[in-house]
Amino acid sequence: MNEDSLEYIKKFVAQRVNELLTENEITNRKALSHLVGYNEHFISDLLCKKRSPYVVSIYDICEFFGITLEDFFRVDYSKDKTVASVMKLLVDQYKPEELSLLYDILSHVDKDSIITLLSSYRLYFESKKEDENKKI
Predict the structure, then answer these.
(1) Distance between CA 17 and CA 51 in Å, rounded?
(2) Which residue ranges does the record assign to the HTH cro/C1-type domain (predicted)?
(3) Angle at 34 (CA atoms; ends 29, 36), nearest 5 degrees
(4) Contact status, residue 69 vs residue 58, Cβ threshold 8 Å
(5) Helices and strands in the chain: count of H runs, count of E runs
(6) Most exposed among 39, 75, 86, 108, judged by the fewest C-beta atoms under 10 Å?
(7) Which residues contact 48 (CB under 8 A, 6 or more apart)?
(8) What are the structural domain ranges in the chain?
(9) Which residues contact 67 (CB under 8 A, 6 or more apart)?
(10) How far is CA 103 from CA 12, 97, 99, 106, 107, in A?
(11) Model confidence at 115, in pLDDT bands (50, 70, 90)?
């Protein structure tokens, strides 16, 4: 494995473990390290990218949080706004003929009009979401 790949994995694991800590309101890294069966600096070392993660250690973390390895490594594209994630979202959710229509729109309408349209939709979507939350 090359150095760039290892750094990417360390960064991904650190980010994912941090998300799990935040979601579960866990602040004591030393205690968590012991609970998953490792020395007291294990979680801190993962978060600081000082330690190379192994599948078995990630599995132990998953066991503690009650998730699978698949859940751990699943990328949530709703948080990731990169071009690659947008492309994956489009390919996963739309048929080729629908993508062709979208391409035609994007290639024939000026950028300012597209930005205005998308901004309007965002405002509409956010207001609709607020209305639904008020009903609950």
Answers:
(1) 13
(2) 17-74
(3) 95
(4) yes
(5) 8, 0
(6) 108
(7) 14
(8) 3-73, 97-135
(9) 20
(10) 32, 10, 6, 5, 6
(11) confident
Give kind and range of the element (H or E) at residue 30. helix 29-35
Model pLDDT for residues 119-136, shown as the tens digit of each residue: 888 888 888 777 777 776
pLDDT 10s digits, 17-73:
998 998 888 889 998 899 999 999 999 999 999 988 899 999 999 999 999 998 888
Which amino acid, 23?
E
Question: The tokens 């007291």 sit on which residue?
Answer: 40
Number of Cβ within 10 Å of residue 32's Cβ equals 22
Q: What is the DSSP string of 40-74?
A: TTHHHHHHTT-S---HHHHHHHHHHHT--HHHHH-
What gap in Å lies between CA 52 and CA 57, rounded to an integer? 10
